[in-house]
Description:
InterPro entries: Beta-gal/glucu_dom_sf, Beta-mannosidase-like_N2, EBDG/EBM, Galactose-bd-like_sf, GH, Ig-like_fold, Ig-like_GH2, Ig_GlcNase. There is one protein chain. This protein has four domains: 182 residues, Sandwich (Jelly Rolls); 112 residues, Immunoglobulins (Immunoglobulin-like); 275 residues, Immunoglobulin-like (Sandwich), CATH 2.60.40; 96 residues, Sandwich (Immunoglobulin-like), CATH 2.60.40. The chain is globular, with a radius of gyration of 29 Å. Helix content is 15%, strand content 33%.
Amino acid sequence: MFHRRTPLVLAVVALFLTLTAGTSRVPPAPRPAATAVGSLPGSRTVLSGYAIRSAAEVPDPGAVVSRPGYPTAGWYPAGSRSTVLAALLAAGAHPDPFYSTNLKRVPAADFAVPWWYRSDFVVTDPAVRTYLDFSGVISAADVFVNGRLVAPADTVAGAYTRHELDVTDLIAAGTNTVAFRVRPNDPRKRLTMGWLDWLQPPPDANMGLVRDVSVRRGGPVALRDAHVVTSLALPSMSSADLTVKALVRNDSPATVTTTVSGTAGPAAVSRSVTLAPHETRTLVFSPADHPALRLRAPRVWWPAAMGGQPLYALDLTATVDGAPSDTAHESFGIREVRAPLNAGGARQYEVNGRPLLIKGGGWSPDEFLRWDPAYVEDRLRYALDLGLNTLRLEGHIEPDEFFDLADRYGILTLPGWECCGKWEGEVNGNEAGERWEAADYPVAKASMAAEAARLRHHPSVASFLIGSDFAPDRTIEKGYLDALRAADWTAPVIPAASNASAPVSGNSGMKMTGPYDWVPPSYWYEKREGGATGFNSETSAGPDVPTLDTLRRMMSPAELETLWKDPSAAQYHRSPSATFSTLRLFGAALSQRYGPPTGLEDYVRKAQLAQYENVRAQFEAYARNAKDTSEPSTGVVYWMFNSGWTSLHWQLVDRYLDQGGAYFGAKKANEPLHVQYGYDNRAVSVVNNRTAGVFGLTARVTLFGTDGEPAYDRTVSGLAVAGGGASTTALTVPASVPGLSTTYLARLLLTDGAGREVSRNVYWLSTEPDVLDYPETDWYHTPTTSYADLTGLETMARTAVTATGSTTRDEGSGTSTTRVTVRHTGRGKTPALLTDVHLVGVGGAPVLPVRWSDNQISLWPGESATLTATYRTGDLRGAAPRLRVSGWNTPTVTVPAG
């Protein structure tokens, strides 16, 4: 464990570690290699890494620490983006923080003092102008270069502010050094990042440098803030106007003439301008002076389910006396996002003139803000696999590459400031977060300006939420809006994620009514509270217990015993909030509805069934009501899409990318063409998420007892449903069906004109409904006074399924595809309920990530289904793929996958 020590003790320890290198658990790291910096004007080189150490263990001042050659024996290495704790974890100073209560054992006192971040870089031509360009300092830092303080912490404050420091006069040929003395973070006192009740917070509060620090080189004229403002002709989309803007800044003491030229998409632009010493001017290229900037038949960017994702490029060069002085490069997309309030006051998003139901999830970065592009891309692919079109980033706004990926995959994003800390301290009453001081206002405005300039060109960014639980007051809002206006921000600005209003922006058009803890599936159909009406910016039934594989990776055997035996026990892997620290509400519902768990496996088995039905109902209710003429639903954000650590709640996919009932419930609800059952009115509806309409459909619903005996069967043919999220009601199941058992099953089948099955959906229901006590609703749930009786599922006869698989490899892409045929081979009439197939490799561990065409399926005797799983071949780690098949009432078997 890492603890603070006195300088004398540190010196002894450092000497000991040097003499015993290779034998200690955390050997001293070698000095990070100096970053070689290019000399070409317009080049930008990211510092490759740092040596870091607690300031309590470094007695020398910044003027000494930041000199080239300063000894760093015993310092920890850190990557180009790293919090302090992330670096310590990478060095092995602490055990796996995602397991058990290991995180609790990391001493927070180690991070109550500043930490030094020190990096060397090599310059061969010091005559070329040199700048340090950075953001992502948590929470503030004194910056030194080659022994000189170049920026104090009171000017380098805020996680999102961006800084450019001209250090040309300090740079020498050879090795140069930059050192950041990073201050501790407290999200209640600083405009940075915090975690509130999402997870157990990191002991270092994410202090560190979490975005790139770049060394930029240039000539006498700097080219900055280059961007393209697009305007798409609607509704025709037959043309688009591009306006190119850029700042040109003369950083020399002489008058210079520069020519700025380049291309914006297919259009060429060029202009010369004379600048006085240290003058800055904005250049504007418009269709009026460059007709080629009016594009005919532009390639328009769409969300994934609505069209393609073409991107254009902006490339500019500033030359002086025929030589390049600086360059600018940016990609951009052409699309128009609007979000007017509908007749009922709800926010209705439109992309390129077409309204869409926002189907989203709350995004969480890694708890220690570690950037892993492959891991991020895997989760974005999962979001598309689930049929989601949007991810909401409440604070923790990810680096540029995240939005590049969102652009490429066609996933809309809703970034914004976070709740319940300093960001809302001036307006949130008695909530956490201190009141603002005079110094906070310019930091907030600078944060908005920096994020606006960084995000404005990404077509995936659908809006910015300048408030979360609370809307800003007039002074704060004006600072935000002024910064957005100056940045040529064109996407909608939303005053809050809650039902709040701001003095200038007006009503939010959103609701934040929860729930955040367990409610029954029927809850989502009521047009009240968090039910399917309007735009619900964050909501779910709370607990999302992961698979048994993941639980055993994250919790000790004793903790797993408590998990299923004592729902009222505080769970470290749920939340630090007293409101959400236990699984009491979820445990009560599980026991009352399904029967008390008999062991850990039974608990997890029932949890997956419960999470499947609840998540499916949430998305189905909002989808069905999207086109209602009265109080339509316009958006729903599942709270949350993922967790930043190993969690027991608020996640459709777990930390290790395993998929359980919550995942496949969402995937089923959001499939392109979908047949579903309404818990409120028993209507069987067809929802068409495809762009084009569909005709000649046949819907069939059959009700079965848990023994498989049919009690009701009806088929309706000749159905048609328009595209774009439209729905139609095929039939309504009678309120009472003679002979139906208390617990029963409903099988819904949808076939196309050729008789092919295009959607299958199976429900487990009860003649005794869940009863909600709406008058007792609080901010996080509505109590249930009587539960649906689903205990009849326990009496379902055990039955057999078989699975056969074959696997093919694509050497070019490095992926494999396993094709699985699952058959119900049992005798009698009992169906195989919620059959799950896991692809496993070494030691029977799941191969992750994996994308299934379908999973957790229900089959009746004689039925079969063919599923495909796609994954990286390397994730098998040399093992042969195998299939682990399990289900509610089927034995678990593992078979080879070819």
